[in-house]
Amino acid sequence: MQILDWNTLTADQQTAALRRPALADSGRAEQVADIISQVRAGGDEALLALTQRLDNVELEQLQLSAADIAAASARVSDELKAAIELAIDNIEVFHRAQLPEAIALDTRPGVRCELHFQPIDSVGLYVPGGSAPLVSTVMMLAIPAKLAGCQRRVLCSPPPINDAIVYTAQRCGVDAIYSVGGAQAIAALAYGTDTITKVDKIFGPGNTWVTEAKGQVSSDVDGAAIDMPAGPSEVLVIADAQADADFVASDLLSQAEHGPDSQVILVTPCADFAEQVNGALEEQLAQLSRADIARQALAASRTFICQDLTQAIAISNAYAPEHLIVQTTDARALLPYLKNAGSIFLGAWTPESVGDYASGTNHTLPTYGYARTYSSLGIADYQRRFTVQELSPAGLQAIGPAVELLAATETLDAHKNAVSLRLAKLEKKA
Q: 119 with 151: CB under 8 angstroms?
């Protein structure tokens, strides 16, 4: 990784050094819009044709049958099933604790205000296929959907769907599994076809085609809401001279192997440690099956030599990483000062991998700087909240005059009259 001395850079150079690789476009928006139009017009027939053309897979049907699911599940080893069960247990424990409770109180005597929570009725879960079957993503999306109370939970994944994805989906309570991926899957979930019923909200990561499609359907009133905007996977590691260079290198590579457009950053006050990490990266790269992918990601990544940990925190907050790993002598002491991150991993014994799979937290996180304003996926994303208010006559008399004056100040006469008429009737009854 390229090593830069943060304090020798100008402000503009620092901004440029923290800039993420640009997301390739090359007319993708227009191509995705065309795919969406085809699906809206042609439904299942268009999905089958697009799957054959784009994925080179010829399907007879989109939905997996009960027999298909049973056969796929039978092919999953008992050892893998046990690992999935452990992860499910931890994810359920952490997400069940997030279930909110309704609020009901009187802001004044006779003025009742309440906050209630309602699950989103139907949700679509997108799980990427490709070279890395993301079994963990099934759990991260489906478990909170079930706990939140979403009545209909369906999953799309590019064919051929990995057996472990199928097994995990049925284990986590997914109602239907569809063999379709890419922008066409997002279009089907957003607008519906004969086989795939339209959903209210779409969850899950994907490549730039999927990301573009999610953006387009979420901006269409007839489309569907989405979980969050997304970009390539990323990690930032804050490490001091006492950190283990092998551990840090392994954490950087765990993100670099996701894809060529992933970005990893190390921030440390120790130049010698940065060199040690570079050496460890080379040693570990030789052992990786996805070494070529990781090398491409490392080419766009860098190490910053900072003055101290205070400055390291400032750099991290400015970057707002998806994953933030803190490997310092007292990692928890930094936590109150770390403002912008999707998920934080404290200490030498907390690799980012545990959050990806089985610690219990959700690995669906804001990337590309969105951690400044978006949160990690949780129960709240699968529910909507709404308020209720109920006033007694005495309650209206208590706050009515203030409402009248505020409405008059805004020259909203009908608002004022809605209160005034009621107050006048109460006066007549008195």
A: yes
